[in-house]
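Sequence, please.
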C-alpha cells in the first residue's frame, strides 16, 4: 500500500499521482479514500528479429529442392509470434507465416525446403531481410559406355558367350538410350544385322547390360558397341 501526505488550503485542489509497476498481467483494483477504479496490465508481446538469412545451395535445376535458412531471435517478452516468408519467382509470388514460441533472448534456426518449379531468379524475403537464388534448366540426358567385354573371349561354334557393357547417364535429365551392336568376321559368309539395345536411365544412374551371343561361323569376330570394340575367336 502506498501513502502520500498532501497539504491543501481551504478550497484548493491538487493532483496526486502514484506510480505502480505491475508484476503480472491481470486486472488491478485501485482504492483511494473510498474511491475505486481499475486498470489492466497486459503482458508485453514477443518481438522477433530475423538474421543470417541464407540459401543452400544458391542455385539448382528444375525439380531440385533448395533450403531457405534463417535465425529468429526474440528480443521481446516470452511468447508466440510469427515471421512472414515470401518467395518471389518469375511468374508468381507466394507467402507463408511460420509461428514460433520463444523465451526472451532465445534464438532458433529455421530451414524451409523449397522446390524449384521454373527457370529464373528467385527472391526470398523474411521480415524485410532478402536473399536471391536461381534456377536453371538441367542439361539433357547424355550417355557414356564403359566396361565393354566379352566372356569367354573364344570358344567352339555353337557355344554361348556373353557380351557385357555398362552405360551411365552423365546428363541432368532422365532419358532413353540406344546402343548399336555390329558384328563382322574376316572372310565370313554370314552377315549379321546390326543389333540394338535400349533402355531408360535417370541422371547419375548406370546399368550393366549382358547380351548372350552364339557364333555359328569360325573366325575372328569383331564386335562393336557404338565406338567400343571387342573380339571373339570362334573355332
Amino acid at each position: 500500500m502506498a501513502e502520500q501526505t498532501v497539504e491543501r488550503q481551504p478550497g484548493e485542489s491538487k493532483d496526486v499521482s502514484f506510480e505502480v509497476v505491475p508484476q503480472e498481467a491481470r486486472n488491478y483494483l485501485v482504492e483511494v479514500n473510498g474511491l475505486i477504479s481499475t486498470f489492466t496490465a497486459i503482458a508485453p508481446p514477443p518481438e522477433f528479429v530475423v538474421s543470417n538469412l541464407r540459401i543452400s545451395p544458391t542455385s539448382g535445376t528444375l525439380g531440385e529442392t533448395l533450403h531457405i535458412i534463417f535465425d529468429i531471435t526474440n528480443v521481446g517478452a516470452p511468447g508466440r509470434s510469427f515471421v512472414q516468408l515470401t518467395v518471389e519467382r518469375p511468374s508468381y509470388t507466394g507467402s507463408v507465416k511460420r509461428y514460433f514460441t520463444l523465451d526472451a533472448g532465445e534464438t532458433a534456426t529455421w530451414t524451409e525446403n523449397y522446390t524449384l518449379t521454373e527457370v529464373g531468379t528467385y527472391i526470398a524475403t523474411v521480415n524485410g531481410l532478402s536473399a536471391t537464388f536461381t534456377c536453371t534448366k538441367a542439361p539433357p540426358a547424355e550417355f557414356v559406355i564403359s566396361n565393354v567385354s566379352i566372356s569367354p573371349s573364344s570358344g567352339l561354334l555353337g557355344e554361348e558367350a556373353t557380351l557385357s557393357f555398362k552405360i551411365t547417364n552423365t546428363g541432368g535429365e532422365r532419358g532413353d538410350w540406344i546402343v548399336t551392336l555390329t558384328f563382322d568376321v574376316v572372310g565370313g559368309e554370314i552377315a549379321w544385322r546390326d543389333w540394338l539395345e535400349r533402355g531408360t536411365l535417370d541422371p547419375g544412374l548406370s546399368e550393366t547390360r549382358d547380351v548372350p551371343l552364339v557364333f555359328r561361323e569360325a573366325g575372328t569376330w569383331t564386335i562393336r558397341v557404338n565406338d567400343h570394340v571387342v573380339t571373339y575367336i570362334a573355332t
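The chain is about 0% helix and 60% strand.
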